[in-house]
Amino acid sequence: MKYMMFVCTDTEPDTDQNDLPDVEAWVAENDARGRRVHGAVLAPESAATTVRVRRGELVLSDGPFTETKEVIVGFDLLECANLDEAIEVARTHPMARHGRLELRPFADFEQ
Asked: Which residues form the YCII-related domain (predicted)?
C-alpha cells in the first residue's frame, strides 16, 4: 500500500538531543528495504505559490501566510504492507522528533 508522508515543521520540537537519528541513514535503510519509493526536500516556503480560482478569476498568492506556524518541508512516498508498517517507518524519521509527519494513504478509486 502506498502512503504519502508529509514532512512538516512543528512549533514544539522534542528538546531531547540524545541519540538524534541521521536522515541519510534513514533514507539508506528505507531505500534498501524498498519502503521508500521517492522523497525530496522542498524549497523554502518563501518560494511557494498558492493557486485558487474564485468567481472564475485566477488568484495567486506568493510565499507563506503569516498565520502559518507549521509548513511542509519535504515528502516521502512510502510502499508499506499496512498502516502499522508506515507508522514504524515514520517513527524512525528524524523529523518525528523535530517536526511532525503526516501519513496519508493514496485513495483507491477501483473499489
From this structure: 3-109
Asked whether residue 110 is domain-assigned, the answer is no
CA neighbor of 96 nearest in space, from 23, 1, 4 = 23
Other beta carbons within 10 angstroms of residue 25's beta carbon come to 11
In a domain, 111, yes or no: no
**Identity of the residue numbered 13:** P
Query: Which ranges of 11-104 does DSSP label H, i.e. alpha helix?
Result: 23-32, 83-91, 95-98
Phi and psi, residue 66, nearest 5°: -60, -30
Closest CA relative to residue 94, chosen from 32, 2, 43, 30: 30
Domain count, the chain: 1
pLDDT tens-digit map of 80-101 = 999 999 999 999 999 999 999 9
